[in-house]
Amino acid sequence: MNLQRKTLPRFLLVLAVLWALPGDPAHAGGSLLGLDFTQTMPSPNPGEATADLVPKRWDPRCIPVEFRLNDTQDPVPDPTGLGALPLADAAVVLQDALDRWNRIPTSFIDMRLTGTTSNPGFAHFDFVNEVTFRTDLPAGVLAVSSVASLCEDAELPDGLDLDGDGDSDVAAGIATCQDADGDGDVELPAGWYAAGTILSNDVLFNAATFRFATTPDNTLESVDLEAIAVHEFGHSHGLAHTLINQISATEPDSATMFPLVDTDDPATQFAMRTLHTEEVAFSSFFYPEGTAAAGPAALQPGDIPFAEVFGVVQGTVTDGTFGGPLVGASVTARDQETGALVASVYSGHARTSYDAAARSQRLVEDDPAFHFLDGKYALPLPAGQYELFIEAVDGTPLLAEAANDAVKISAALGRQNFQPDGFALPRDRAFEVRPDRITPVAVPAGRTVRRIDFISNDQVTLAPFGSLDQLGFPEAPGGTFYAVAFPVADLLATTGEEPFALTTGLFYTSVFDSSVAPIFERALLTRCTVQGTAATVDLAHPLREVAPFVGREGDLTPFPFTRTVSLGLQIFDEARRGTLSHLCLVLEVPPPPYAGISAVPPLIGLDGQEGQPDNDTMIAGLSFQSDDGELFEASPFSNFLFALVATPLVRE
To answer: Which residues have CB under 8 Å from 515's CB, separation 6+?
Structure first.
């Protein structure tokens, strides 16, 4: 079979701290992070200092947050020629985006577009919260929210110049952040501020590459301004990127704070305008209504106390393979009744090594004990019943660099390679034969549910592929089968030639249009044999089967097996007797019609592509396609991204 392959366009929304004081971008699930040198000490790296990573927040004295729109480009530049947006219309849309956050009844955040600024250059750290379409962003980046924060606990005195422009940024005699001297920038009230306090925020839209419009369409370079602005203003008050890129099978859109956007799918852009439960929960958790007698956090008409709606789940995540705290695991809550993903947060507190001369963070090689302070997490959730699980930030669907500096450190130290694991009583363990088993957790409003603790699973994974290079196959007819054959000798080698529980299959699944879910006709684990470039696959007698199979967009989707111990022992026995040579993981494409504006079937991930022989991993010849379920032909150019996961039953 020679089916057309296509790499899908997704453009990046960057939450950035381009001008942190000092340092590189740092951000986390739930909260943005900044550098804290308050308790600094020498780093294990010579000549460097330690810095904790702390959450970024606006001080209540600076709420409402006032933004100014750069008026030096009117209309907004339009690189496509499809029609430029008048700046006045853009201002209306931007305030609508701010109001999406302002209208959360349990959050006291208040952000306003209050005027204009005439900056002929690029935005920079200057105590003007600038919104601008004048940027030099990379071509693939839609927008950036640059959040500068204070890098140590400090008593800020009257007259202090923080941005180095010769003008005071701190004033005595004022109680709120304001332009006290009338020169166009904001001054802070003199007094004490915590490390992580947001000092200034600029929001940049890449109008040099993209056309920003008030209505989304299916033009690749044209994008909905309100959708992108809602996302960026989430960063403006401290929220970070989320791992949730598919809420459920029936609600396939991502959460608003997921950082990739399908710009040729109008439906997904419309959905991005509406805040997901995670955004509402964390905005409320960071700025909780009803927690002060006066000021922004005091209840006003229409406000609802945070504690009347939300509870909080707390716990720790421990590394089941290496021991010690696991920083950067994504702890996610799924609604038990609807199956929808509700909210997620990255675990742990971390610190970094900082090179002042280079103004950059450094890794202390092979020393997680230095970087990882603990594995604690706190996850706000509306009152309800939830299934909680952890997963790694392993590049699908989110790169570690896009998630969190702590996650990036964790990945660099080899800690982001564990498989998903559910919370189950009586206690979580490192060696589980049913990692998909989950005990529901009740979360009452106004309560903290403690000791929801995880230990990541110490498992082995047979993944005969390299990097994701493209997606296949958008022109596959209904009834097409994709199969990967796993030599049982390789499986036994990974488990030390000892008995094992076969726990999970993994399929990299995706879609052409982000507003639909990748739903396959069925998924199977079955016996198969390989003869040269052909395979015989036993579709009639599968060992395990799920129909239909709901995949995750741009992610390795788990296919959990039942009776995992008996399944593994059966395979182990057949392999030792020589009656089983290969196992096959199989996906079947459903019949049309297909949902979405492009009407394309669900897709799978491919490693390698025709015409590019220098692949990062050898093409194994164990990935097969069939259009009738009878003849399975090897793919000559690709490894399909399918994997098997097992738990050895014998431990040293």
So the answer is: 252, 253, 262, 265, 267, 268, 271, 596, 597
Answer yes or no: is 291 within a domain. Answer: no
Task: Assess if residue 296 is contained within a domain.
Answer: no
Domain termination residue (choose one: 405, 426, 458): 458
Instruction: Answer yes or no: do 134 and 230 share one domain.
Output: yes
Q: Radius of gyration of the chain from Cα atoms?
A: 26
Q: Which residue is listed with tokens 């709420």? A: 63
b/e map of 550-582 (b: 16 or more CB within 10 Å)?
A: bbbbbbbbbbbbeebbebbbebbeebeeeebeb
CATH number at residue 391: 2.60.40.10
Q: Are 391 and 81 in contact (CB under 8 A)?
A: no
Burial pattern 621-645, b for ≥16 Cβ within 10 A else e, equals: ebbbbbbeeeebebbebbbbbbbbb
For residue 306, the Cα-to-chain-centroid distance in whole angstroms is 25
Q: Which amino acid is at 261?
A: V
Same-domain check for residues 238 and 355: no
Quick check: is 178 in a domain? Answer: no
Whether 433 and 479 share a structural domain:
no
- What is the rounded CA–CA span in Å between residue 271 and residue 239? 18
Q: Are residues 336 and 471 located together in one domain of the fold?
A: no
Q: Domain range holding 339?
A: 306-458
The domain boundary, picked from 429, 458, 487, lies at: 458
Identify whether the C-beta of residue 145 lies closer than 8 Å to the C-beta of residue 236.
Answer: yes
Peptide bond into 189 cis (omega under 30): no
- Model pLDDT for residues 61-112, shown as the tens digit of each residue: 999 999 999 999 999 999 999 999 999 999 999 999 999 999 999 999 999 9
Q: What is the pLDDT of residues 586-596, one digit of tens each?
A: 999 999 999 99
* Cβ-based burial of 175 (10 A; exposed 0-12, middle 13-18, buried ≥19): exposed
Tokens of 345: 């947060």
